[in-house]
Amino acid sequence: MTEDCAAALDLSDPLVRARIIVPVRNGGARWREGAHALRTALPDPSLVAVVDSGSTDGSDRVAIECGFALERIDPSAFNHGATRQWAIDRFCAGRSFVIFLTQDAVLEGADAPRTLLSSFSDPSVGAAYGRQIPHHGAGPFEAHMALFNYESASVTRSLADANRLGIKTAYLSNSFAAYRLEALRACGGFPSHLILGEDTFVAVRMLLAGWTLRYCAQARVRHSHSYSIAQEARRYFDFGVMHAQLPELLRHFGAAEGEGIRFVLSELRYCAANAPMALPLCPVRNAAKYLGYRLGRQFRWLPRGLCRRLSMTKVFWNGDAPLHSRTRPR
Q1: Domain residue ranges in the chain
Q2: pLDDT tens digits, residue range 31-48?
Q3: What is the pTM of this model?
């Protein structure tokens, strides 16, 4: 940020004390839409840093056109946690907060980043995340997923809620999340060993350390995925791997299956009311997700090559990832 630009900004604005980081790879039309929405929302485009891991579709040029800071990394070096931590170290010196967005999340309203940062007016809040609503034209499964995970009322959660809310207590999504850097650093930052779920890892650490998590329903982005049944199975395989890698999540907040049953029942009710033709697919999709999840929980006993085929995060299984605490067959 130039001195002239800084002088023109309101330095009491929490957005000026934050950096927005977006990892990108071949984001396509959705990234272009999201980038322009982000540029419209900001007083200074250099508040955004884009980490591009080998785009071949011009996604890096979109960042340059919008005036965002850009760093390119080798795609083989990308890691959900380590890349985000590297970006914080690279771009957040002197900042109080960092906001993470994914390339397929589109701000719903120019005030969304500031609204999310307002969560930190409560000094106990270590991290906050916004509401995700489905993209225009989303199908019934994507729409229900967003409605199930992101309710209309804001809430602050602490470790004391674990008995009541279970694993939902530690829910946090880096598709649109903000962190108090003091709290993030005190909890050790993002991990490098997880397949995904770096946000969940930090949420668990923060809750156990006495920080709270804020769900800010007034800060909204459009974000949803149209996954096939096979893609859902791979995605949930990765969730299973993450839960196996993060035993403290289940130890302190309970098993995921209870929340899964609640989701299935909610999905059936939603489809019955809004998309009855989709009802026959519900048991098939959920069986595929459950099978993928259970296989992921047992990943240490599976050959690496099979894990790679079952996983959505293929690059994680290249080389010798630092994740194996037990010997397993290759």
Answers
A1: 3-226, 230-314
A2: 999 999 999 999 899 999
A3: 0.91
